[in-house]
Structures
1.
Amino acid sequence: MYPLGFTAAEKIALPPGTPVRHRLRQLSAWLDYAVELGCSGLLLGPVFAAGTHGYDTVDHYRIDPRLGDEADFDALAEAAAGRGLRIVLDGVFNHVARSFPHPQWFRRDPAGGFATFEGHEQLVALDHSNPAVADYVASVMAYWLDRGAAGWRLDAAYAVPASFWHKALPKVRAAYPDAWFTGEMIHGDYAGYAACAGLDSVTQYELWKSIWSSLNDGNFFELAWTLDRHNGYLSGVLPQTFAGNHDVTRLASQLTDERHIGHALAVLFTVGGIPSVYYGDEQAFRGVKEHRAGGDDEIRPAFPASPSSLSPDGWPVYRLHQRLIGFRRRHPWLVRARTTVQHLANRAIAYQSAWAGESVTVLLNIGDEPFRFPVGAPGAPGVPGAEVVTPEPGAHPADPALVPAHSWTILA
């Protein structure tokens, strides 16, 4: 989740002397909701003192006063731990705000000025060749791991030399061997970068794009191509997979046919990797990212005070998430599964995800007519241990390989 948006925090930092807003406490009211969804962790967007949206950090050791203070974080970490939820923090260590108190750590551009992140003047790049920067990052990570965090998402990791993480992370792992580190990779050699950097995971943007565009275009050949590449990544790293996040148009808005939300989720929860759900997507929230100032506001909305205040329209999608996440948790080996396409056409695909002698078969049909897949049906009724998941809870089709129009089936 993106806490500044979730809690309806101010768009800019509070003026000096303004009382702290204890909004971080609002998240505790949603922890049971996350557990009931089936989640095992909470990946927070920026929570440290910043100038505006949180990615212009001013002080990595201080909770943003718009969200609260360190005691509020401690309380949240304790409440999460009591429910079996691990907290992962967003570490923005590629760039900082211009008001960051260590300008001697800023990287210079060829003209002699301060280098910026992708042309954003308010985001100044750190000099990752400076040993003091690596020491600082390692110290920040250890500080918050000691306060109850379980890992770090490394923002804009693709813009940081892999050698930097290779130097910084071992210092942290020495004291916190169970800590988890995932890097934001939008492009590049995912597995190669992760190996050089020493990361546990990287974001899988290729799969994200392929899921919605193959459904929109009626082109499962794109998905098949991506799944083959995904198999290759899994040999070197466990990708963080997703159908939405804080930087992209929401799934319900991205898809041209809302009947295909279930197809997208079926893929997300049956392929290898570590799946994540962006807050609101589980309620079919809508929102379009726009490339302008404030263009992220629609995809980073405020949530009500409690789940009971959510619109009734989103709960069917929430329950679908529950069932698919439940399936995932009953088959934990899927985290390392490799996929093999068994049938492929523009609007129909069958693939098998398998690992260590276990397998599930996924059948997706986005055509206007029912389609019988020419594959075996391991989930056939009467087979001991068979499991069939369809859009309809509790459905037991007589022919599991026959998938209705614009529908899907998972067979185990």
2.
Amino acid sequence: MKNEQIGECKVNMRIEELDFNKVVTEDLIELNLQGTTKEEVLNELTNLLFKNGCISNKEGFIRDVMFRENEGVTGLEKGVAIPHGKSKHVLKTSIAIGRTNKFVEWESLDGNPINIIILFAVKDTDKTTIHIKLLQKVAVLLADEETISKFQTLQTKKEFLKILTEKD
């Protein structure tokens, strides 16, 4: 992976204004991930974060995400995983979201593979309060079976953002 940054991260967030519009944009969503392994999918989402200026170093960020992956299960249930990297390579705390065409083997609470990945990129300085609040918001969303069903079938990034923000 080359480290040629392209864009400026459009994510802008203060803890008192924590909402999904501040941590994810359409540019950070890919509904057609091509990866067939956990590593390939994480690389694709990391590329989105890098291309949009949210992280400074792809290899360093991936290393931090994989370190966290080795600490415990990030696959939830019903095909969803929430990997996260708390890293000095994160320029702005943000979330990249992807959906794969085929299910990917991933350690999960229900033992099933996943196809929806919500990758948290957390700045070292945000690793306590903001990180926990983001996880709480995502957990509330993912507790709703209707929301997960919509994530599996929606066709546009705009629809995805709408679901995230309407429950916010």
3.
Amino acid sequence: MKICRASVAVLSLLVAFSAPTLAEVLLVDSIQSAPAVNTPHNGNSMSQVRAQFGDPLTEVPAVGDPPISRWDYDGFSVFFEHDLALHSVVHQTASK
């Protein structure tokens, strides 16, 4: 019985220490394979985004509370809360 408990403890430790390492490798591979796209920085105002990237292809009006709006550009979208950029999302291209 003691051997079973010891085996379970050793296996648990192996799994616990190997899982984070695997996750780091996958994350690094994913980041390195992603294409570099210039997008607005979080916290930029709408006027700063428009000055740097021009007029968006589409402007989706604000919804919700707080109001969240979206501007779509060729290759990425920018999400705003009130007048400030919250997040930029790069559009995924179709695989061949």
